[in-house]
Design goal:
about 170 residues; mainly alpha; 7 helices; about 75% helix; protein transport
C-alpha cells in the first residue's frame, strides 16, 4: 500500500467524520444533499456486496459488474451536492470542509494510481477514467475553497448567477 492510498483513505474517513459531526451537532442535515448521500450509499452497497458471497462465478460476473457500476456512480454522486450549493448560494463552513476532503480523497487516489502504475505496472482504466471525471467535477469547488479572498457565501452566490470564476 502506498502513501497516496493511505492519505486518500484518511481524507475520505475525515470527510465522513465531518459530515456526521455536522449532523450530530446541529441535529439537522440542512445544506447536505440527500440525493448525493443516497447515491453514495448505493455506491458502497454495490461495491461491497461481494462480501456476502464466495461463489467464484457469481463474483466474477455479477460482482464485477456491480463494482464497475459503483465506480461510475461514485464519479457523479457528488453532483447533486454541488448543484444544491450552486442553486441555494449557501454553504456552511463544515459542509465546504466535508466536500474538500471528499475531493482530496479522490485526488489522492489519482496519485495512488500513478504510483501503482510506476511500481506495479498496474492500470485500471475504469477506476482512472472515473476518478479523473470526478476530480474534474471538484475543480471549480477546489478553486473556490483554496482561493477564498472574499467570503465563501459571496463566491457561491456569484457561481449561482453564472459567474464561472469569481475573483
Amino acid at each position: 500500500m502506498n502513501v497516496f492510498r493511505i492519505l486518500g483513505d484518511l481524507s475520505h474517513l475525515l470527510a465522513m467524520i465531518l459530515l456526521l459531526g455536522k449532523i450530530w451537532r446541529s441535529k439537522c442535515c440542512t445544506g447536505i444533499s440527500g440525493k448525493s448521500q443516497i447515491l453514495f450509499a448505493l455506491v458502497f452497497t454495490t461495491r461491497y456486496l461481494d462480501l456476502f458471497t464466495n461463489f467464484i462465478s457469481i463474483y466474477n460476473t455479477v460482482m464485477k459488474i456491480l463494482w464497475t457500476f459503483s465506480i461510475y456512480l461514485e464519479s457523479v454522486a457528488i453532483l447533486p451536492q454541488l448543484f444544491m450549493i450552486s442553486k441555494t448560494g449557501e454553504a456552511e463552513t463544515i459542509t465546504t470542509h466535508y466536500l474538500f476532503f471528499l475531493g482530496l480523497y479522490r485526488a489522492l487516489y489519482l496519485a495512488n494510481w500513478i504510483r501503482r502504475y510506476q511500481t506495479e505496472n498496474f492500470y485500471d482504466q475504469i477506476a482512472v477514467v472515473s476518478g479523473v471525471v470526478q476530480t474534474i467535477f471538484y475543480c471549480d469547488f477546489f478553486y473556490l475553497y483554496v482561493t477564498k479572498g472574499r467570503s465563501w457565501e459571496k463566491r457561491v452566490k456569484l457561481l449561482a448567477q453564472g459567474v464561472t470564476h469569481p475573483f
